[in-house]
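Below sits the subject:

***
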Amino acid sequence: MSIKAFAAQLFAKRVYAQTKKWAQNPVATQNKVFQELIRQAKDTQFGLDHHFDQIQSPADFAQQVPVRDYEQLKPYVDRVVKGEENVLWKGKPLYFAKTSGTTSGAKYIPLTKESMPYHIEAARNAILHYIHETGNADFVDGKMIFLQGSPILEEKNGINLGRLSGIVAHFVPKYLQKNRMPSWETNCIEDWETKVNAIVEETFNENMSVISGIPSWVQMYFEKLQQKGNKPVGDIFPNFNLFIYGGVNYEPYRAKFENLIGRKVDSIELFPASEGFFAYQDSQKEKGMLLLLNSGIFYEFIKSDEFSSENPRRYTIGEVELGVNYVLILSTNAGLWGYNIGDTVQFTSVAPYRVVVSGRIKHYISAFGEHVIGKEVESALQEAMEGTSIRVNEFTVAPQINPTEGLPYHEWLIEFENEPDNLAAFALQIDDAMRKQNVYYDDLIVGNVLRPLVITNVPKNGFQDYMKSIGKLGGQNKIPRLSNDRKIADVLNPK
């Protein structure tokens, strides 16, 4: 074992002990974070507008501060973007993470000197927890690649802005710089296909041990590596044994990845966003990701089936239940207050608190009252694929309300790597799995309101071509698992 690997094991032991300390005191930890957030922001414009000086408890906060999404918080954000100080948080942000997806164009998510360190620390600690649990630290001597956006930043009224992954690239610790790939020049390439080709050339002969990124885009990198080397990725990189990912569920991709790599590798799931780093997989043995309760974020949770009601109850960490679908609400040391990020989570453990991302509150199908969520379609596909040679590159699901003939149905648009011998039988397997998970969907099938789902075969690279056509190829962009309309479906299947 190298000195570097030994040092990593010692560091991992210390971080594990620190994590265990706050994880065993979740309510007290969150209360401490809450009180500190209110104290630091009470003299900001937002704090004055919402009477932070009168807030003593989360119940007070819920009365004073309504739940808002970005559009509703935008009047405050616009003032920050214009350069005004002490609006949402004290002073000015260090950066804006620029993302797309709102009705009014780009989102500008503030990152402050208080919030930024937690983004870096969480990613580091995820790896250290893996080292502590497995004892495997040899990978620290190899090369590591993080497929991410360009680190080139713009400036707006004296504040730098860019993609979150590009901003984070400026904070990679010095002890990782020598091992980190790709080069700065390659990382700055904007066009995703050109960038991936350059990364393949740059890494092909290197000792890659850790690879990280959103699965759909890492898959493209692996395919190009395999084409260049005419052998599995695991043979090209014999010391590659750890895949770190976030953004989407890995399970639908796992079979394809293991085929591309040629063997199984360990994986670590992360739950980062521009708004904060919320959770990471702290154990290879337990399901879910450890919710980070001491990282400058106060969490509230609203049951997703109550979210649209006039005044839904906001639960705090000590009040949540296992297996319930919650909308995640944030208040952060970057100045987001009662903020609806749009993600839904379910708790898999309460000692410690671990979550899985179950979907997006806006990404669901309920054309007939079925309220199908992302976790359900991913689980159903995974169940149908188990024990088969079927491999899927990408998929999305949409309702077909007005078919040319027969009853309405859910259309599954799937790009296969290995197609099933009997597509209709495979569709019925997925449908059966869906019916077991979602009683409302089952009722609609039994009641002849819907017929069983229909699979549409998407040609090779169909999803990549679609993302390219809308200017969202690569980076942190990803295909929604499901939609309540046919905007994506009608492009992929224009019949």
